[in-house]
Amino acid sequence: MDRIYNFAAGPATLPLEVLKEVQKEFLNYNKTGVSILELSHRSQAFSNLIKEIEQDLRDLMHIPSNYKVMFAQGGATTQFAAIAMNLMKNKKADYIVTGIFSKNAAEEAKIFGDVKIVADGSSSQFRKIPDCSNLPIRDDADYVYYCDNNTVYGTKFKAIPNSKGKPLVVDQSSCFLSEPIDVSKFGVVYAGIQKNAGPAGLAIVIVREDLIREKLSFPTPTMLNWKIQSDKESLYNTPNSFAIYFVGKTLKWIKKQGGIEAIQKKNIEKAKLLYDYLDNSKYVKVADVNSRSMMNVTFNCGNEELDKKFIEEASKQGISFIKGHRAVGGMRASIYNAMSKEGVVTLIEFMKKFEKENL
Ligand SMILES: *Cc1c(COP(=O)(O)O)cnc(C)c1O
């Protein structure tokens, strides 16, 4: 089979075992005689499936029982508005901006209320996560928002920001299921799943029950209303059933490997291999050493000409989609859960050769 090593940031590489299993049962899901694509979301089979998936997610992430789980359409970005509409009571929210996605989330929230940027990484071109241990959080802020792993810059929070008792909302899109987290420390944990768990278009939204309110401060579209969506168990309308099914398969794959703790071990090992090599190489590292992401590794050759050559030659060796985001340039190796150690080793071998010949 001529599959390449896919270092794309998202949609991204998915576990081959899962893809094969999906392919195998594509025409006949679980003896229903129909494809998962053809299966009614009101059928018993789908109802059983979505319940099982939620339970698997709860088991893997140790989600406390006072949290609701929603499978929301429209990816992570749709939640930028939903978060503001559902959580703003005083219409004030404090945002930590550490990259493009948190900036976009803050901009979206400004449509609805008074947004204060309480920490801003732009002075370091987002190479560094600012100190968030003592932020100027407002007493009447409805929530504090941040993005855990900055996909574009390859940075990651090493500690949970101190939200001074306000509900903390975290975008986990590009580090979802990559390491254990303590859900009880958050008001909302959410993620678009196309980085680490499945196809694009679906977000998983985990919300502490007391933050789900009946009366909202804005006229809120039904599809963004967490009360309605959670009461209807994500089945108010036809859900993104294929993406939900796919995530279910990914969760079983994680379970089989020993859970998120075991996955984290592998992720640490892969990232260490790559960063150890980078640190002893002539490549330019983008993210500050203390802010490094385990999922997205950003670097460049020091000039654009060579970056271009790197990307071209890498692609000929089956190392693909490694081009950095246009805001950063250079290269970005996304090494999500499904990227094998073998893939990372292949990349390092290529980088060594390229370094010797060009840097
Ligand atoms: C990709 C990404 C998003 C946007 O996800 P969509 O599903 O395209 O809306 C948001 N936040 C982070 C951290 C991401 O990596």
Question: In words, what does this structure look like?
Answer:
The protein has 359 residues and is of the alpha/beta class. It has nine helices and 14 strands. Strands 2-10-9-8-5-3-4 form a seven-stranded mixed sheet. Helix 7 packs parallel to helix 9 (341-358). The longest helix has 21 residues, at 259-279. It is globular and about 65 Å long. Bound molecules: pyridoxal-5'-phosphate (PLP). Residues 10, 75-77, 101, 147, 151, 171, 173-174, 192, 194-195, 200 line the site of pyridoxal-5'-phosphate (PLP).
Main beta sheet:
7 strands, mixed
Which series of helices and strands comes N to C?
A: EHHEHEHEEEEEEEHHHEEHEEH
Give the strand order, joined by hyphens, for the main sheet. Answer: 2-10-9-8-5-3-4
Provide the β-strand percentage band: 15-25%
**Which percent range fits the helix content?**
25-40%
The termini sit apart by: 33 Å
Count of DSSP strands? 14
Shape: globular
Which residues form runs of ≥5 with pLDDT under 50?
none
Structural class: alpha/beta
In round numbers, the mean pLDDT is 97
